[in-house]
Predict the structure.
Amino acid sequence: MFFTSRLCYVYIAMTPISESSPRTTSPWTPCPVLGIESSCDETSAAILSSDGTVLSNVVSSQDSVHRQYGGVVPELAARAHLGTIDRVVQSALTQAQLTRQDLGAIAVTQGPGLAGALLVGLNYAKGLAFGLSLPLIGVNHLEGHIASAWLADPSFPFPCIVLVVSGGHTHLFRRDADGRTQLLGCTRDDAAGEAFDKGAQMLGLDYPGGPAIDRLARQGNPKAVRFPLSRLQKSSLEFSFSGLKTSLLYRLRGMDQSARTAQAADLAAGYQEAIVRVLVDRAFVAVKSSGVQALAVVGGVSANSRLRALLTARAREEGIRLALPPMAYCTDNAAMIASAGRQLLISGQPPSADLEILPSLRAGTYMDRAPLHAR
């Protein structure tokens, strides 16, 4: 399958660009960076200035494509990326008031994510980098989310704990000033985002599930319908949400339709409370056990209003510095990818024209490469 951009043809396949593709061997001098994100169901492009300031961050959502299926359909996601990516990149350039010739590097998501979706973004980035003779750097999607903590707050301190709650990911990391990242704990089964989506389906709510539950829960009482909190060992930094999902299923089975309708807001509020309470609890256990004074919470679920309220209150109470990215940087976006890629280039990570997608890239894989505070 081929598609055209203004500069090149890109073949959507796993075959890497040839060894004759341009490479950068000298130290990278900070200059404008284009970020491209296409790991799931958002097509995004962003431009960062030479000093790391976000000049543009364009996100094209696919909610309307997947809503009727109640979840992301990989093939449809890839096709939507294919039809949108060139327009999104051009829009990012226009908003930044730059041309392609002003760019100094391209950062693109390699994984984890949907294979077809990743292929579109990566091969578009390869073609553009080849046509412009620019260095190309691959970014771990989770590393991008971590980088979002510093986009709006460049002075956020190290060492810190970072809770990543995005889609199928619920991970706790410790990030040090030298760029090393240690995975402290993650989910044993469903991630928080998956629990929100599955809960929304059972409650008959719209897609995407997280925002739908958040909206409905604001009308309910979180204490009216209580759900069990998934507590493992007190000191554990792991998560488990499959039991919570099962609890909601059985509770709904015991209610007739009129009761479900009458108690919908309270059900949503109680279910949401059980998720966010566990996230807050585990995050602060990690803060305390690590002896740090800073916590960042990033990813799509970090946009949840109840989670943000509980985190803010707890951080104030315990005197912990808290970073909650603005809404524009919570869900999948290319500004975070550009930021992470920029830090990798500054730290000396060599670019490569021969990148391949890594759909199953695990948390912690090559995430100890670059200090995020480098400017």
About this structure: The first helix runs from residue 63 to 66. The radius of gyration is 21 Å. Confidence is low (pLDDT under 50) at residues 1-24, 365-375. The chain is about 40% helix and 20% strand.
